[in-house]
């Protein structure tokens, strides 16, 4: 019965959303938040703005992905991505993924009718909207239609590896139209970061993506100095330089011992996406990183360098930064 109630509610909202979407553009009124309610306007990004995300659900590996604004377009942004998939991706002014160029074309394509409208600015507590799209359902073995309902529930403090931020919590209720199955997820958007700081859902196997570092161009802030950032209490922070072989790792250590800055060497030599942030991997908890890395970091004092540490990804030079 509960699934049927959700299905009926979703269907009603989706029909209303489809009707609104069919209006002529000139007939749509500009959305304005109620007076006195906290609101977030669409971000105004600049070339060079970067965010680094960690998927901490993938067996304690770092799994960092960096996204940087390569170009500001008339209707959105072109972002360069680095990590498990590398290439260019196009986003609109709502930071909604529209399509990919190059290697990124392997992500969620083809057979997609529309993309999830995870954010729709301006945001304020109480706002809601709907959308629909097609995606792979692993349990059914094919592409199926899904309906989404989004509700901005609240503004709250969110702690992620990049720090602690005030963020808008957006609930996403997703229904598989073929199965009638309803699942929930959440997205947190922080104006101080100009982007998402966390995404959580329980489908298909669970996702917990968190912001581990960020840098905004000019004097707008970063995970090290941004005014919106508050270091999480009682957590450690580290940086790394990842190279492919032991000889390269030994050369990195030699140059560090010779006085070259760790962050500069990370930007020059590391093959990890964290190189864009001088090797910074953000704050971490015990059990979040690879055991081999944590074993070395556990014995380092703040400012000390350790390694090389061999893992399946290569050779890591580590620095404890807090």
Structure commentary:
The strands form two sheets. The chain has an eleven-stranded antiparallel beta sheet, covered by helices on one side. Strands 13-12-15-14 form a four-stranded antiparallel beta sheet, with helices on both faces. It has helices spanning 2-21, 246-257, 262-269, 291-297; strands spanning 50-55, 64-72, 76-82, 87-92, 97-101, 128-137, 142-160, 163-176, 181-190, 195-201, 207-215, 236-243, 280-284, 305-311, 314-320. The protein has 322 residues and is mostly beta strands. The protein has two domains: 2-13 and 41-215, YmcC-like fold (Beta Barrel), CATH 2.40.360; 236-320, Chitinase A, domain 3 (Roll), CATH 3.10.50. It has four helices and 15 strands. A hairpin with a 3-residue loop joins strand 2 and strand 3 (76-82). The chain is globular.
In brief:
With 322 residues, the chain is mainly beta. The chain is 15% helix and 40% strand.
Number of domains: 2
Largest sheet descriptor: 11 strands, antiparallel
Strand content is 35-45%
The SSE string, one letter per element, is HEEEEEEEEEEEEHHEHEE
End-to-end Cα distance: 52 Å
Features:
YmcC-like fold; Chitinase A, domain 3; 2 domains; eleven-stranded antiparallel β-sheet; four-stranded antiparallel β-sheet; 4 helices
């Amino acid at each position: 019965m509960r699934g049927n109630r959700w299905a009926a509610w979703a269907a009603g909202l989706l029909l209303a959303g489809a009707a609104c979407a069919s209006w002529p553009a000139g007939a749509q009124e500009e959305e304005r938040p109620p007076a006195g309610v906290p609101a977030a306007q669409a971000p105004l990004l600049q070339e060079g703005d970067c965010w680094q995300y960690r998927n901490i659900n993938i067996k304690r590996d770092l799994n960092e992905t960096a996204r940087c604004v390569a170009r500001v377009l008339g209707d959105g942004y072109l972002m360069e991505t680095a990590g498990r998939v590398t290439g260019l991706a196009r986003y609109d002014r709502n930071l909604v993924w529209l399509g990919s160029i190059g290697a990124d074309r392997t992500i969620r394509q083809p057979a997609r009718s529309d993309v999830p409208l995870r954010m729709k600015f301006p945001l304020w507590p109480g706002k809601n909207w709907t959308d629909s799209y097609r995606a792979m359902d692993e349990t059914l073995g094919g592409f199926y239609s899904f309906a989404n309902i989004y509700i901005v529930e609240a503004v709250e403090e969110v702690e992620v590896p990049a720090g602690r931020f005030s963020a808008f919590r957006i609930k996403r209720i997703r229904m598989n139209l073929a199965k009638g199955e309803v699942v929930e997820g959440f997205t947190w958007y922080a104006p101080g970061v100009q982007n998402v700081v966390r995404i959580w859902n329980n489908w298909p196997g669970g996702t917990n993506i968190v912001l581990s570092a960020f840098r905004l161009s000019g004097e707008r802030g970063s995970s090290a100095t941004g005014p919106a950032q508050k270091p999480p209490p009682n957590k450690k922070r580290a940086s790394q330089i990842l190279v492919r072989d032991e000889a390269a790792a030994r050369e990195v250590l030699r140059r560090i011992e010779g006085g070259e800055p760790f962050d500069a060497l990370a930007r020059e030599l590391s093959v990890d996406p964290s190189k864009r942030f001088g090797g910074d991997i953000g704050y971490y908890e015990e059990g979040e990183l690879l055991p081999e890395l944590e074993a070395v970091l556990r014995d380092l004092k703040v400012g000390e360098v350790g390694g090389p540490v061999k893992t399946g990804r290569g050779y890591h030079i580590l620095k404890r930064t807090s």
